[in-house]
């Protein structure tokens, strides 16, 4: 067919123009595809990372934070919320190292601290479960663990005290019976009468008056009462008061200076989950990246990041104060909310940590999304001290480049794709128009040769169409390549969430109990078939419309005018 | 019935407020088989008149009758059909399609007639042979000399066996020797086919070879200096 040969010649023998057009078209198409793929990738990343609660089947998390300590004392001027209760709870968990074994022996021990969340009886969750609009409730226990190992230090001093003899002589206060008082008084009067001395005149005479009130015997030093005559009037026990007391002997054990041994200490977080409720809990089977979910036995799930850090694998043993847990699964805990490095059955953790029957987080699922806020209010009313966090509130606490990029993509993604699409379309149109514009004289010649307008238009549009197809195909390939490159070499986005309380704190406890979880979400750019088609169609439509417009314009020129056009 | 009958034909171009009467009141009759030279300096209206005769344009006023049909009354497609079947054009600038080979350029003049691919090729090759370019059939215009390009253009113009060949300054871009060759070729081939030839030129030497010479000044035919019969 002559016309196809002509078309081929036009495209192949004007290589630079064809390449330019193809390049322009394909870059536009590739931009549209890459941008929309990127936008999708960000959306996807956001859905998985920034919707932390949905993956654990939860709408609300309920925790009990300590009350602000208004009375000072332990209170921290910085406003740290950990009050006296939490501090005491944490201190009580710190075990006397001397109980771990004989000094000098090796020990491994995990201390479990409740962190900044108060524990409460697990039974309270029943009250939440009975509320309107609540479809499921699960309780959990999230603890900060301090793992210590090293040599048991010599930290005990043994002191013996007591056994001293103490001899006490002197005046002692006595209470005399009225009969005794009368007898003493009579004796004194006899003495006064016989000696001619009047009471009250001699030194210490005041003492007699005091005696009447059952006070002390004697008064000033010496004097009448010290005289042998007066002594005779007093009962024998008063006359010679002397007693020997032996203090009791005792041995006091006492903690001395902080131990300076090779004890290493590391912290991690551990959570107890109810294995009987796999659909709602601090960890759910959907978060498993390998292995299986917990049963009620000595199973443990380990967060991917912690497993990497500690070189733990499926089947590894985790020894916690004598209980050996088997790692049965690796999980990727959601960001935000209540996460932990290690998950074990709730009852096991309660036993280990001495928190029997206690929990410190309740996960609540509403029966429908519209009732979430109502349930939240209900819980807040029933438990004034409770902190009730919804998915959105948890998500809002997540920061990092993923959030920024996601916001950016939400704001700009559609606009960018539209701009790229428009650019691709305009580029196609302009390139085609300019190439048609340069061929006005050629078109005039064709018309002079007897080509009908329809034939001329068909020829020019055919060329544009071919370029559109070519540019579209190259663009699609380019877009797919760019998207793949983003997936392969693209940056990882980070999402960071602080959990377990605000930073800082009393006596360094904050540093132990609060932690920041950063999740790296690799940026991918998944391509949707419809986007490919749209990109391709854009190139085609741009070329086609512009080609047709240009061709009609040129073909409608009177051939005489077209021929007059100087190339 | 004469081949062409023109009565008071005028073509007026407007450039802003300036009105240019490129062709101004031409009355003319041309018989089939004539070889006519249109003489005159640049801007005298030769090209415009040729375009009116070749159905590339419509007159502003007056009538151009070709084989008894008023060209002004025909629709675009009918004019295109006429250009395809009845007229063959040769231009000063050759106007070959730059991306097509010599052979393909000839084919471009024949393709709209709908002849089969094979015949298209054979006829085009035969025409190139007639103008002496059989061995250059697959060269692009840029690879041909001016004289060769114009010979390709002649082959293209003759491809459909037109009844009229309209040549606008066909030697204008050629040296004297190749100009003369081109004219010989054109006249010879036209004579073989019994085609009418109308040549616009300002070259008196070339015009002198035509049996009928029409002189143009300012859009009007000012005389037929020689009438050979």
Largest interface: A-B, 25 and 33 residues
- In the sheet with the most strands of chain B, the strands line up as 6-7-8-3-9-10
Using the coordinates above, name the CATH class of one domain in chain B. Answer: Alpha Beta
Principal-axes geometry of chain A comes out as rod-shaped
Distance between the ends of chain B: 19 Å
Report strand % of chain B. Answer: 25-35%
Low-confidence segments of chain A, ≥5 residues, pLDDT <50? 68-83, 201-222, 500-514
- Broad structural category of chain B: alpha/beta
**In this structure, how is the largest beta sheet of chain B organized?**
6 strands, mixed
Describe the largest sheet of chain A. Answer: 11 strands, mixed
Let me know the number of strands of chain B: 10
Structural domain count of chain A:
3
CA-atom Rg of chain B in angstroms: 17 Å
CATH topology description of one domain in chain B: Rossmann fold
| Secondary structure: number of strands of chain A | 19
Précis, in short:
With 567 residues, chain A is of the alpha+beta class. Chain A is built from 18 helices and 19 strands. Chain A is rod-shaped and about 175 Å long.
Question: Keywords, please?
Answer:
heterodimer; A: 567 residues; 3 domains; eleven-stranded mixed sheet; B: 229 residues; alpha/beta; Rossmann fold; six-stranded mixed sheet; four-stranded antiparallel sheet; 7 helices
Describe this protein's structure:
The complex is a heterodimer of chains A (567) and B (229). Chain A has 567 residues and is α+β, with helices and mostly antiparallel strands. Chain A folds into three domains: 2-50 and 400-564, no CATH class; 55-154 and 266-394, no CATH class; 165-246, no CATH class. In chain A, 44% of the residues lie in helices and 21% in strands. In chain A, the strands form five sheets. In chain A, strands 1, 2, 4, 9, 10, 11, 12, 13, 14, 16 and 17 form an eleven-stranded mixed sheet that branches. A two-stranded antiparallel ribbon of chain A has the order 3-15. A two-stranded antiparallel ribbon of chain A has the order 5-8. In chain A, a hairpin with a 2-residue loop joins β12 (317-320) and β13. In chain A, α2 (15-49) crosses α15. Chain A is rod-shaped, with a radius of gyration of 46 Å. The two termini of chain A are 28 Å apart. Chain B has 229 residues and is α/β, with parallel strands linked by helices. Chain B has a domain at 33-51 and 83-223: P-loop containing nucleotide triphosphate hydrolases (Rossmann fold). The model of chain B has no long low-confidence stretch (mean pLDDT 90). In chain B, the strands form two sheets. A six-stranded mixed sheet of chain B has the order 6-7-8-3-9-10, sandwiched between helices. Chain B has a four-stranded antiparallel sheet with strand order 2-1-4-5, covered by helices on one side. In chain B, 33% of the residues lie in helices and 28% in strands. Chain B has helices spanning 46-53, 76-85, 102-110, 117-130, 146-158, 176-193, 204-207, and strands at 4-15, 18-30, 35-39, 61-66, 69-70, 87-90, 164-168, 196-201, 212-217, 220-223. The chains are: A alpha+beta (567), B alpha/beta (229). The A-B interface holds A 1-3, 5-6, 9-10, 13-14, 441-442, 445-453, 455, 558-560, 563 and B 48, 51, 54, 56-58, 76-77, 80-85, 87, 89, 91, 95, 97-100, 104, 107-109, 111-112, 117, 120, 140, 156, 160.
């Amino acid at each position: 067919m002559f016309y196809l040969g002509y078309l081929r010649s036009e495209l192949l023998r004007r290589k630079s123009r064809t390449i330019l057009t193809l390049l322009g078209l394909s870059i536009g198409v590739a931009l549209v595809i890459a941008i929309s793929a990127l936008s999708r990738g960000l959306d996807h990343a956001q859905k998985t990372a920034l919707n932390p609660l949905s993956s654990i089947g939860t709408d609300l998390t309920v925790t009990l934070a300590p009350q602000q300590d208004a009375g000072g004392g332990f209170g921290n001027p910085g406003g740290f919320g950990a009050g006296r209760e939490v501090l005491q709870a944490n201190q009580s968990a710190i075990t006397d190292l001397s109980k771990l074994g004989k000094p000098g022996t090796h020990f491994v021990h995990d201390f479990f601290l409740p962190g900044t969340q108060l524990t409460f009886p697990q039974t309270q969750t029943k009250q939440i479960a009975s509320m309107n609009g609540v479809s499921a409730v699960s309780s959990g226990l999230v603890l900060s663990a301090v793992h210590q190992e090293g040599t048991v230090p010599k930290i005990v001093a043994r002191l013996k005290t007591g056994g001293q003899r103490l001899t006490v002589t002197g005046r002692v206060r006595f209470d005399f019976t009225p009969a005794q008082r009368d007898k003493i008084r009579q004796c004194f009067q006899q003495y006064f009468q016989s000696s001619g001395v009047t009471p009250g005149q001699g030194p210490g005479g005041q003492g007699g008056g005091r005696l009447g009130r059952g006070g002390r015997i004697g008064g000033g030093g010496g004097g009448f009462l010290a005289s042998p005559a007066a002594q005779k009037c007093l009962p024998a026990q008063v006359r010679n008061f002397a007693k020997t007391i032996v203090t009791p002997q005792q041995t006091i054990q006492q903690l001395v200076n902080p131990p300076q041994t090779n004890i290493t200490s590391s912290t991690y977080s551990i959570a107890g989950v109810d294995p009987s409720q796999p659909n709602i809990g601090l960890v759910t089977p959907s978060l498993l990246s390998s292995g299986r979910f917990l049963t009620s036995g000595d199973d443990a799930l380990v967060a991917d990041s912690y497993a990497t850090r500690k070189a733990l694998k499926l089947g590894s043993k985790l020894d916690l104060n004598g209980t050996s847990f088997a790692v049965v699964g690796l999980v990727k805990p959601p960001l935000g909310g209540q996460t932990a490095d290690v998950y074990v059955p709730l009852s096991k953790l309660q036993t280990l940590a001495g928190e029997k029957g206690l929990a410190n987080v309740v996960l609540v699922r509403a029966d429908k999304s519209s009732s979430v806020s109502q349930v939240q209010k209900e819980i807040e009313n029933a438990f004034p001290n409770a902190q009730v966090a919804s998915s959105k509130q948890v998500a809002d606490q997540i920061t990092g480049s993923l959030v920024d990029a996601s916001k950016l993509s939400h704001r700009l993604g559609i606009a960018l794709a539209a701009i790229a699409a428009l650019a691709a379309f305009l580029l196609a149109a302009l390139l085609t128009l300019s190439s048609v514009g340069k061929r006005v004289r050629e078109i005039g010649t064709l018309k002079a040769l007897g080509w009908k307008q329809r034939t001329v238009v068909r020829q020019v549009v055919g060329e544009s169409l071919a370029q559109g197809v070519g540019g579209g195909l190259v663009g699609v390939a380019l877009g797919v390549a760019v998207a793949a490159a983003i997936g392969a070499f693209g940056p990882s986005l980070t999402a960071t969430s602080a959990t377990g309380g605000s930073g800082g704190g009393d006596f360094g406890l904050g540093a132990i109990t609060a932690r920041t979880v950063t999740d790296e979400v690799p940026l991918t750019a998944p391509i949707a078939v419809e986007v490919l088609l749209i990109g391709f169609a854009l190139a085609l439509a741009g070329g086609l419309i512009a080609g047709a417009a240009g061709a009609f314009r040129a073909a409608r020129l009177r051939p005489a005018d077209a021929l007059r056009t100087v190339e | 019935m004469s081949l062409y009958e023109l009565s008071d034909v005028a073509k007026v171009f407007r450039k802003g407020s300036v009105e240019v009467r490129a062709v101004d009141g031409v009355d003319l009759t041309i018989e089939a088989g004539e070889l006519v030279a249109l003489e005159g300096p640049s801007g005298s209206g030769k090209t415009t008149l040729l375009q009116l005769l070749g159905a590339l344009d419509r007159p502003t006023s007056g009538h151009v009758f070709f084989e008894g049909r008023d060209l002004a009354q025909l629709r675009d497609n009918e004019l295109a059909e006429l250009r395809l079947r009845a007229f063959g054009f040769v231009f000063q600038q050759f106007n070959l399609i730059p991306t097509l080979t010599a052979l393909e350029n000839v084919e471009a003049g024949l393709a709209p007639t709908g002849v089969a691919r094979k015949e298209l090729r054979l006829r085009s090759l035969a025409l190139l042979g007639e103008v002496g370019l059989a061995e250059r059939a697959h060269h692009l215009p840029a690879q041909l000399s001016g004289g060769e390009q114009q010979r390709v253009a002649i082959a293209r113009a003759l491809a459909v066996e037109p009844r009229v060949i309209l040549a606008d300054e066909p030697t204008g871009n050629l040296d004297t020797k190749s100009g003369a060759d081109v004219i010989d070729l054109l006249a010879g081939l036209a004579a073989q086919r019994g085609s009418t030839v109308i040549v616009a030129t300002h070259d008196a030497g070339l015009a002198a070879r035509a049996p009928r010479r029409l002189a143009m000044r300012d859009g009007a035919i000012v005389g037929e200096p020689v009438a050979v019969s």
